[in-house]
Amino acid sequence: MVKKSHRPEIPRKTIYRLSTYLRCLARLKEKNMQTVSSEALAKVAGVKPTQLRKDLAYFGTFGTRGLGYNVAELSYRIADELGTSRLQPVILVGVGNLGLALLSYRGFEREGFEIVAAFDAEPNRPRDKKISVTIFGMEDLPAFVRQHGVRMAILTVPAEVAQEVANALVATGIAGILNFSPSVLSVPEDVMVNSVNVAIELENLSYFIQE
Amino acid sequence: MVKKSHRPEIPRKTIYRLSTYLRCLARLKEKNMQTVSSEALAKVAGVKPTQLRKDLAYFGTFGTRGLGYNVAELSYRIADELGTSRLQPVILVGVGNLGLALLSYRGFEREGFEIVAAFDAEPNRPRDKKISVTIFGMEDLPAFVRQHGVRMAILTVPAEVAQEVANALVATGIAGILNFSPSVLSVPEDVMVNSVNVAIELENLSYFIQE
Asked: Is B15 within 8 Å of A175 when comparing Cβ atoms?
């Protein structure tokens, strides 16, 4: 993994929790709260206060004893740490049912991501839904990624072609892939893949709820 | 968490890997392979052979030295452990864009799950897509869950109503919720929630690919 050399190794689970804290802080901001205690923030985030303080300690402390955290400042610091304090361009590859549903979702920009373009092997195929993002053919991928400095891609193609498309993405310089296909992807070490597999999540639930 | 009393505590990450092994074994079956070595299976699953052997040791060993694992037998044993050796009924609540996309996906049955019904506050609202699953109103939820012995639900409702709908699901006796809403849900201890949050996965990627 490519990382800023000065940053400590923050565990992956901590990074996920930072995302949760950021969402909780956004809700507090909407309610015009300016400060929050670690106890209160931990409670809405569903973690122990000691866990919260330990997580925030990875990149310095901001709480003032007795006053708690400044909501706006802590939000900014977490977003900056996650790399989402500025809007990041993301592309989506594979405009089937799931791809269309994700393209229709309007919540990403609020979270720091903009899906700037979509790509599909059949860009002009009739689709069930009108979307505002342009769908390009796969041949346009390399030039687009380079011109727009895109580093992240959402992969919503069928399993059979997932590896091939992942290879194409890696070749263009994409550094992070959010993989929705039910395939295990092989990528070079400096490329990061996060996978979302609905069937595997159901299976995992299934194990834990057995009677 | 409610568990069979005789089973050892298998770590959650191991359960996820069992799902991966199951998918790799399915591919081997398609290729008519009858046995597989732990080295070969570990390779396609993207784990170390020692990890694979350790994971399978949680519920007994089946490999024969020099012959490897019987593909069909190991598949069955893993599916049985995960509780997916028989088709499990699942309901989906919230038929918006993402709900529709999941209802259109035909791969779940192959993986051991059948979405038997969908529920929505506005079951008769016009939708972009024809689907074969019936959409019921929320008032039909309790009777349906009881009559069909459903224990798992996919939650694809907007964030604002997610907790309220989760409460309704818990009240009907649902034991596992796959939550796609960007909310942290509060549920009783004996109910299991797995969450899929696309923005959080993007944020996590974003952190790791920073230059």
From this structure: no
